[in-house]
Specification:
about 30% helix; alpha+beta; 15 helices; four-stranded mixed beta sheet; about 600 residues; five-stranded antiparallel beta sheet
Length: about 600
C-alpha cells in the first residue's frame, strides 16, 4: 500500500526501502568492491543515515560495510569459502526521527575456474525455474516459450491438466465378436477340405507293438459328459468379472479415481432435467455408501459446517482395497434446518457442473439420511489466503529454494486461473456471491480451484438477497451493499478485490476499517489503493472491476484476455522484492472481527 492507515499523521513517517533485497556476489569478489546500493523513500525528505545490523541466523554482516550517507554496500572481508551459501544481515535507515529495518539475503556463488565473478540475472530466475509448471498448467499441444503473447481465444480444453488415460475395458459383445472372428480366421487357415488326411490310415498300418495305448479314448469318454460344466464354471465367472469392471468404470479421467464412485456427474443431466423431484429424486445417481468413508481429520470448519479429509474405499478394508483421498463437507450437530437446506442447495449447484481444472469437482454424495455428506476432490495445499500469507516468510527470509518460491508470474497465473474458472461458472448461469481468497484452493503445480458454493445461485441473472446471515462485506459490490442485488457483474467486483488479496499476499481488504466504515467509504467512491510493489497495468485491471456502473465492468472473458496479456509479458507486474515489511500488510484481521461479532464474513 502507498500509505499506512494505522499511522498517526502528526508523527513523522519512517523511511521506506526501495531496492531489491536479494544480493548476488561471488566468493572471489575483491575486498572493497561495491555490490549494491540501498535506496529509500522518505515522505518528509529527511536526511537518511544507513547502517548494518547482524541477522539472527546465517549472519553475514561482518563481510560487508555500508556508506552511511550514500547507502552503497561494499565487501569488507573476503568471502572465500562461502561459495554456495546464503547469508543474511539487517539494513537499517534512520531519518532522525524513526528507524526502519529490513533483512537482506546474500547469495554467494562459487568462483569459476578463471576467478571471474558469476553474473546472475538481476533477480530473475531462468525460465526453467521461474514457471516450470507452465506446460502442466496450460497443457498446450505445442511447447510454449517462456513469455510469448498468446491468442486471446484460448479453448477451455487447453487449461486442463494432463491426466492419465485409463485403458478402455473391452465390452462384452466386443469380446465375443473378437473370439468368433479369431475362431473363424483360424478355421480358414487350418482347415483344407481338398487335402486328404492319411493319419488314420497310418495308424492302422502301424505294427501292433508300436501302436499307442487307448487310455486317451477312455479319458475322453469320461471328460466329455462333464466338460461343459467345467467350462461354464470357469468361463462364466470370467465374463462376470469383465462385465463388473466395465460397469464400474467412468468415462471421466480426472486427477482423482472415480472408479470408486459408480457414476460420474454427467448422468445428472441425463436423468434429472425437469424431473421436479429435487435432490431426493436424483440422489441415487450420485450416492456413495457412507460406510465406505474413513474420516481422518478436519481440514476446516465454520459456525455450522466442517470439511474432513477422508479415505474412500471400494469394499472391505483389506490389503487389496482400492482407496482414494477425498474431502467431505458436512454439518455440525448445532446446524438447523436452514443450514441443511443451504447444504442441499450447494449440492444441487455442484451437480450441474462438468469437471473443470479451475473448479472443485463434486465426486459423490451421501443424502439418504442425516448427516448429509458432499464428497469432493481433495486439494492438498488448502486455502489460497493462507498459502499467500505463508509465502511472506519465504520471500523475506529465503527459506525455500528459488524454484519453490512465489514469483510475479505465479501471482498473475493465480488470477488468470480464477478468471478462467469464473468464466466457466458464469457461462453456466451461476452467481458465486462469495468470491475471495479464502474460497480458492491450491493444488499440485500451483493450480487454483474455485470452491465453496454455499452462497451460489443458479440460473438467475439477478438475485435479490432477502434472508439473514453474515456477509462478505469487504468483497461485495456497491449495488450489493446498498440494495442486496447480486449478478455476475458483482462477482466481477469481488474478483477485483481477490486480485488485490493476491498482490498483497493475503492481506484483508480495507485493513484497519470496520464493516460500517467500508460500506460508507465505498459508497462515497473510495477504492482500494495501488500497492507500492504493484505496477499500474496490474492495478488497472482491479480498478476496472470496481466501476460504479456494473455494465461498465469487464466480463470474465475480457478479464481472461487482459490477464493473458500480462502473463505473456517479460515484465514483473508484481515486484515481490519490494514487498514492504511495514504498515498493515501483516494485519490479516481488522479490529473487532476476531470475536466473530462484527456481522461480516472474513
Amino acid at each position: 500500500m502507498s500509505k499506512c492507515r494505522n499511522v498517526n499523521p502528526t508523527f513523522n513517517s519512517p523511511p521506506v526501502f526501495d531496492f531489491k533485497r536479494e544480493i548476488f556476489v561471488s566468493e572471489n569478489t575483491p575486498v572493497g568492491q561495491m555490490v549494491t546500493m540501498v535506496r529509500t523513500i522518505d515522505k518528509e525528505k529527511d536526511i537518511i543515515t544507513y547502517g548494518i545490523d547482524p541477522a539472527h541466523w546465517n549472519d553475514g554482516s561482518k563481510y560487508f560495510r555500508i556508506d552511511e550517507k550514500t547507502g552503497q554496500i561494499f565487501v569488507r572481508e573476503s568471502l572465500a569459502g562461502q561459495g554456495g551459501n546464503f547469508l543474511n544481515m539487517y539494513i537499517k535507515a534512520n531519518d532522525g526521527h524513526q528507524t526502519a529495518k529490513i533483512e537482506a539475503v546474500i547469495s554467494v556463488s562459487k568462483a569459476t575456474d578463471k576467478g571471474q565473478i558469476v553474473h546472475f540475472p538481476d533477480i530473475h530466475l531462468p525460465p526453467s525455474q521461474i514457471f516450470n509448471t507452465n506446460n502442466i498448467l496450460m497443457n498446450k499441444t505445442e511447447t510454449r516459450p517462456y513469455h510469448p503473447p498468446t491468442p486471446k481465444d484460448v479453448p477451455l480444453e487447453t487449461l486442463r491438466p494432463q491426466r492419465k488415460q485409463r485403458p478402455p475395458i473391452t465390452k462384452l459383445n466386443t469380446f465375443n465378436n473378437r473370439v468368433k472372428n479369431e475362431t473363424k480366421n483360424q478355421q480358414s487357415i487350418t482347415v483344407k477340405p481338398d487335402v486328404v488326411d492319411h493319419r488314420d490310415d497310418h495308424y492302422e498300418q502301424m505294427p501292433t507293438e508300436d501302436k499307442p495305448h487307448r487310455h486317451s479314448s477312455l479319458l475322453t469318454d469320461i471328460l466329455w459328459p462333464i466338460g461343459p460344466y467345467i467350462l461354464v464354471s470357469i468361463f462364466v465367472p470370467t465374463l462376470c468379472l469383465i462385465f463388473c469392471i466395465e460397469t464400474t468404470t467412468s468415462s471421466f479421467t480426472g486427477d482423482f479415481d472415480v472408479s470408486l464412485f459408480k457414476n460420474s456427474g454427467r448422468q445428472f443431466h441425463e436423468t434429472s432435467a425437469d424431473s421436479g423431484m429435487g435432490i431426493s429424486r436424483i440422489s441415487n445417481q450420485w450416492e456413495f455408501p457412507r460406510h465406505h468413508l474413513r474420516f481422518m481429520h478436519i481440514l476446516g470448519q465454520g459456525c455450522f459446517g466442517q470439511v474432513w479429509k477422508c479415505e474412500a474405499f471400494n469394499g472391505n478394508q483389506t490389503a487389496a482395497t482400492q482407496t482414494q483421498i477425498v474431502a467431505v463437507k458436512t454439518l455440525k450437530e448445532n446446524a438447523g434446518e436452514k443450514e441443511k437446506r443451504d447444504l442441499l442447495d450447494e449440492l444441487q449447484v455442484m451437480k450441474i457442473l462438468d469437471p473443470h481444472p479451475n473448479v472443485v469437482t463434486l465426486i459423490a454424495c451421501c443424502t439418504e439420511r442425516d448427516p448429509v455428506y458432499l464428497i469432493m476432490e481433495y486439494v492438498p495445499y488448502g486455502k489460497l489466503q493462507k498459502y499467500l500469507a505463508d509465502s511472506r516468510e519465504d520471500i523475506a527470509y529465503g527459506s525455500k529454494q528459488p524454484h519453490e518460491k512465489l514469483e510475479s508470474h505465479d501471482l498473475i497465473s493465480f488470477a488468470y486461473q480464477i478468471a478462467k474458472g469464473m468464466e466457466y461458472l458464469s457461462s453456466k448461469g451461476i452467481i458465486h456471491r462469495d468470491l475471495a481468497a479464502r474460497n480458492i484452493l491450491v493444488g499440485h503445480n500451483k493450480i487454483c480451484k474455485i470452491a465453496d458454493f454455499g452462497l451460489a445461485k443458479y440460473n438467475q441473472e439477478i438475485y435479490e438477497r432477502k434472508s439473514e446471515g453474515r456477509l462478505p462485506i469487504r468483497w461485495m459490490a456497491i449495488e450489493s451493499l446498498k440494495d442486496f442485488i447480486f449478478t455476475t457483474k458483482s462477482d466481477v467486483w469481488s474478483f477485483g478485490i481477490l486480485m488485490w488479496e493476491i498482490v498483497t499476499l493475503g492481506c484483508t481488504p480495507y485493513p484497519g476499517w470496520t464493516a460500517s466504515e467500508v460500506i460508507k467509504k465505498v459508497s462515497e467512491g473510495y477504492r482500494l489503493e495501488k500497492p507500492e510493489h504493484c505496477k499500474r497495468e496490474m492495478y488497472n485491471i482491479m480498478y476496472y472491476c470496481w466501476d460504479r456502473n456494473p455494465h461498465h465492468r469487464p466480463s470474465f472473458s475480457e478479464l481472461v484476455c487482459l490477464l493473458d496479456n500480462l502473463f505473456g509479458s517479460d515484465d514483473e507486474y508484481v515486484e515481490l522484492d519490494r514487498f514492504p515489511d511495514h504498515c498493515y500488510y501483516n494485519l490479516l484481521k481488522p479490529p473487532g472481527c476476531n470475536n466473530g461479532n462484527s456481522g461480516e464474513k472474513l
